[in-house]
């Protein structure tokens, strides 16, 4: 009888300990989903452009880097907002023939990207994000090569009027392995904004994929 009671006591103790650990893990998960986080991240863009007029325009992808920070603001356990600020390199490569000579051109554009993302957190490990992004063009560099001729043209831009920039959409997901955050994004330009309140649609728009590694506090 004593042995039976000892076995029952051991089973009860083991079950109680396991239940306590599961409850603590669930509480920690809930706590993380309700926490305010600050973070930094960096990674790579693979960018290109597409022709909004639908003509036969061919360009090759170009790689650039992205670096910046983010804030995760909870609005309950499963929803929140995540504003970010990133320095992001985009652009494209192209080649062709002009007047019998072959040429190649690489365009590098440096943007200040400000995504304002809605966050959905189905579980603590995964955050799904989508929202608008405002992109401010700071610098554009064109490297042109044709035969023995090589030329580089650089333009600096000021962005005093925030409506003279580009409105984009972006979305993706974050994998949260606390405190590490692995992020994947895709984005595309929607329209260009003018200072007088009107909008235009640029013929060649940016589209990009982004992979980053971050650390959150």
Summarize this entry quickly.
It is built from one helix and ten strands; from the N terminus they run αββββββββββ. It is mostly beta strands. A hairpin with a 4-residue loop joins strand 2 (62-74) and strand 3.
- Give the neighbour order of strands across the main sheet: 1-2-3-4-5-7-8-10
- Rg to the nearest angstrom? 25 Å
Which percent range describes the beta-strand content? over 45%
Q: Give the distance, in angstroms, between the N- and C-terminal Cα atoms.
A: 54 Å
> Count the helices. How many?
1
The count of β-strands is 10
Report the mean per-residue pLDDT as an integer.
82
Which regions contain 5 or more consecutive residues with pLDDT less than 50? 25-29
| Structural class category | mainly beta
- Anisotropy-based shape: elongated
SSE pattern: HEEEEEEEEEE
Q: Biggest β-sheet, characterized?
A: 8 strands, antiparallel, barrel
- Please bin the fraction of helical residues: 10-25%
Give the helix/strand layout.
Layout: H1 2-33, E1 37-51, E2 62-74, E3 79-98, E4 101-123, E5 126-146, E6 149-156, E7 166-177, E8 180-193, E9 199-200, E10 204-216
Antiparallel strand pairs: 1-2, 1-10, 2-3, 3-4, 4-5, 5-6, 5-7, 7-8, 8-9, 8-10
